[in-house]
Amino acid sequence: MPDTKAEEKQVANSLPFKNPDYVHSNVQNGKKKPWKTLKQILAQTPITSDDSITYSSLDAPPSFKPAKKYSDLSGLETTYTDPQTKLHYASPEEFQDIRRMPSDLIQGYLTLRRANNLLQ
Q1: pLDDT 10s digits, 18-33
Q2: Do 89 and 98 touch, CB atoms closer than 8 A?
Q3: For 64-76, what is each residue's pLDDT tens digit?
Q4: What is the pTM of this model?
Q5: Count of H helices and E strands in the chain?
Q6: Residue 109 phi/psi, 5° resolution?
Q7: Cα separations in angstroms, 48 against 36, 52, 57, 60
Q8: Dihedral through CA 50, CA 56, CA 58, CA 64, nearest 10?
Q9: In what helix (H) or strand (E) does residue 28 lie, and over which residues does it extend?
Q10: Which DSSP helix (H) or strand (E) runs through 39?
Q11: What is the dihedral of CA 84, 86, 90, 92, to 10 degrees?
Q12: What is the dihedral of CA 93, 98, 100, 105, to 10 degrees?
């Protein structure tokens, strides 16, 4: 570490990207102030009111694109839905597997997808 201003300028001249006149923002009256942690900064800021906009209060507008559908068995993108069980499938083999499944297993797949329709 350079001890004098002349040594600092010499180092700065050897490093063209370093500004020799730069003054660190946390040095005041020759003393270094410690950095504040995020917890300290948050504790100092006033609590916002309910009508203010925060990151968690932002609502995105609805999408114009239709939601993508994925097969409940393989996870592949699909456009097919079994009308009897309402499960999505990507191939004829998956369709045969769906038709052979017991109703409690089908209900479990619908629950995983959050499509809790009771089968009749």
Answers
A1: 777 777 777 777 777 7
A2: yes
A3: 898 899 999 999 9
A4: 0.47
A5: 4, 6
A6: -65, -40
A7: 21, 7, 12, 21
A8: -150
A9: strand 27-28
A10: helix 38-44
A11: -10
A12: 140
